[in-house]
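job 3f2a | input accepted
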Amino acid sequence: MLEARTDVVGSLLRPPELLAAQEGLARGELTPTAFKQVEDRAVDEALALQEEAGLDVVTDGEMRRLSFQSQLTAAVDGFGDWNLDAFLWGNWQSAELGELRVERPPLAVTARLRRKRSLATEEFTYTRGRTDRVVKVTLPSPSLFANFWDPERATSAYPNLEEFLDDVAELLREDVDELVRLGATYIQLDAPHYPLLIDPAHREFYESRGWPAERWLELGVELDNHVIGNHPNVTFGFHLCRGNQASRWLVEGGYDWLAERLFPRIHAERLLLEYDDARSGTFAPLGAVPDEKLVVLGLVTTKTSRRETVDELVDRIREAATFFPLERLALSPQCGFATSVLGNALSIEDERVKLRTIVETAAAVWT
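job 3f2a | predicted structure (367 res):
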C-alpha cells in the first residue's frame, strides 16, 4: 500500500490559456492538433506546480476533462444528450458567495453503452512520462451516473437501473485493468454522492430510483469493489466530499451514518475524507476505519483563498490522531481545486501556497 503522507484529490485550476483554447476549439477556430498542444502545456504546468510544492503524489490536474466525471460520458456512446449541467445540478451553497441553483437537465441513457475510447489511459501515459513522482489517476464511482437512468425514458435501453449501472461499472473496470497493464500504481474512485445520502432532499432523489438509502449504499459499494477488482500491487483511493463546485457545497453533516456501512466494506486502501470545516462533523467516525487502511485528511480547503497555517493543521492532525493512529494518517486538500472547468474562487498562487503548506505540515508531523 502507498504510504505517502501528502496527496492531492485530483483537479487543479485550469489556466486561462486552456479555457480560451477550449472555446476556440468549440467555435472551430482552433484545430484539434493546436488544441492538444495547449492542453499538453496545461498538464506540464500542473505537474510543475505540484512537484515544486514537494508533493509525494501528483495528477495531471484533470486538465483534459470538462468535469471530474465527464470522461465516461465523453468516451462512451449511449448516454444521450448531455452538457456540463449533467454534473452540476443541485442547490449549491455558500455564505460568502450566495446560492447557485442548477436545475437537473432532462438526462436519459438512450442506448446500450458502447465504448469509443479509454477514459484515462491517454491522461496516464502522457503524465507518467513527465514526472518521477507517483501518478494518481482519478475515475468516477459507477453509481454517480444513476441520474442518467430515467424510469420513463431509459427502459428501452436498460429495463432497470441496476442493469445500467452494472454496465457502467464494467466499463470502468476495463479502464482500471488497462491502466494497471500500462503501469498505474495509484487509482482513485471519486464518490461524492454517498455523503449526499445524509441530506433528505438528495436521499429522496436516489430513493426515487428504486431503493432505500441503505440499499443504495450497499449496491454502490458492490459496484465500486467490482471496478477496483484484484490488483495486489496497486493502491486504490476512495474520495468522499459533500459537493464542490464554484466554491460552493451541496450538503453538510458528519460521516457518522456512513462510517460503519462504508469504511470497512470498500476495498480501497486510502480513504480521502473532506474535513476542512465544521460541515464534515467530528473525527469520531474514523474509529470505524479498519486497521489495514490509511486515512488522508482533507484539512486544506479548496473553496476559498484562506491560507491555512502549519500550526493549525498540525493541531487538527493531532486531534484526529486521538481517534485513529497517527502513523496511518496523511494530509491533502479537501477536494479538487476545479472539479469542473468552472473552478473555485481562488488563484493559482493560492493553490500553490496551499499545496506547499501541506508538504510543510507533513514534514512537521511525520519526520
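job 3f2a | DSSP finds twelve helices and eleven strands in the chain.
job 3f2a | closed
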